[in-house]
């Protein structure tokens, strides 16, 4: 079925709740966190980001993280495959392209911020590294709620990485605990099964539904949205009415929990 | 924007299983939004939003002299402007190649008199005719440009209001045209034959319609098919890949059936537009 609607029939995506009861704030509690909503990502030390390699330079990679300037991933900030700890040699510089090429996606942590605002990333932990099969969803950075962990293994068989820069990576949960190779191995022969694909597609559409209604994204809100969206098929979640419906139902559940 | 091999593999396997990354099947379109009469100083206009793709079409009319070898026919001219708003690649002269390609394909699609009857634009045989300028502005590129442009052009031509010529007097070499002053005394065009373009992308062994940006980057080749009332108006090939003749036939058949559905949906939506009701939304909301 092909849907062409008129602009006058556009759906209002706002799910703002009309609060009659005043909320009580304690001293020190921030009421509004950010003034700009659709701005680029401003990184802070310790943030988890998902980025795409744009250039391979002398001893570093340039990474696109949806900020004003490309972020930098130094060769000394990555784990070498095999987990070795050694000084980087000239050979390593030539092999850089074998580790990460243009277009590859990585998950990394912000190590420091340069004076011009660009970020220096590192993947010196086993949970960071090159990302394998999955889907990238781009949302506004201000919609990602800061929490203790940004790597979530959801019980439905998919996992998500909520990058602080607004890039969300959805991928099928790895069944076996991958032994520590520093996350540089990609399995391209493995075919993701149809049920897993449905889960991942549904998560993607739910995230976009929450984004359209400007709701904060964190594991609980995404899981509630996923559960509330079960009455629609995955393709039906692209229709604006369905997206607003899922957002409103998720909002209801979140309010009831509080 | 580039994609890594793993992402391409994921998209490829999805297309083979008939379950794309957003849950659509191979022949499904993303929801679209259409608005006509959006530019008040143009004779006709339309805006189409297809997920991330945004196309604005404005139609202007001038009085012109017809070609000497075709004295009873009016003229139709297309101009595409890829604004730098759409993607950073269009900055400066980056979008010119794409713009020329799209306008040439539209001109080819509208060339046949069965598709669009230019004799309706004649005012005085051999001396005066209407010339329609169709200006297309690409506001945002989210994949599947040709489809969006062709649908918006068809909607704008449906919306066009050509001033009604009440009489034409010839006095030696002077020609006086008496054009009606009333706004609603206008001539509408018959757009049931206007072509609708469908982009059929080949990914792996299967073909899909309405690719988004990621799927376009995964495809080796694509075929754009312009269909008008179950007949092919023009077919062009995009991309650097080559197509097996059997695959080309499958693409053409798929494009034909999808174009039929798309045309029906578009005409149904256009019927819902009532000129009396104040339904303007525009760009502010």
Strand content of chain B is: 25-35%
Q: Kindly state the mean pLDDT of chain B as a whole number?
A: 88
Total strands of chain B: 14
In the CATH hierarchy, the third-tier topology of chain B is known as: Ribosomal Protein S5, domain 2
Tally of strands of chain A: 11
Biggest sheet record of chain B: 6 strands, mixed
CATH superfamily of chain B: GHMP Kinase, N-terminal domain
**Largest interface: chains, residues each:** A-B, 40 and 42 residues
β-sheet strand percentage of chain A: 15-25%
Low-confidence stretches of chain A: none
Shape of chain B: elongated
Write up this protein.
The complex is a heterodimer of chains A (258) and B (285). Chain A has a 5-stranded mixed barrel. Chain A is of the alpha+beta class and 258 residues long. Chain A contains 5 helices and 11 strands; from the N terminus they run ββββααβββββββααα. The longest helix of chain A is centred in the C-terminal third of the chain and has 19 residues. In chain A, α3 crosses α4 and α3 crosses α5. Chain B has 285 residues and is an alpha+beta fold. Chain B has a single domain, classed as Ribosomal Protein S5, domain 2 (2-Layer Sandwich), CATH 3.30.230.70. Chain B contains 5 helices and 14 strands. In chain B, strands 1, 2, 3, 4, 5 and 6 form a 6-stranded mixed β-sheet that branches. In chain B, strands 12-11-13-14 form a 4-stranded antiparallel β-sheet, sandwiched between helices. The two termini of chain B are 30 Å apart. In chain B, 42% of the residues are buried. The mean pLDDT of chain B is 88. Classes of the chains: A alpha+beta (258), B alpha+beta (285). The interface between A and B is large, with 40 and 42 residues.
Q: Which characteristics define this entry?
A:
heterodimer, A: alpha+beta, 5-stranded mixed barrel, 11 strands, about 25% strand, B: alpha+beta, Ribosomal Protein S5, domain 2, 4-stranded antiparallel beta sheet
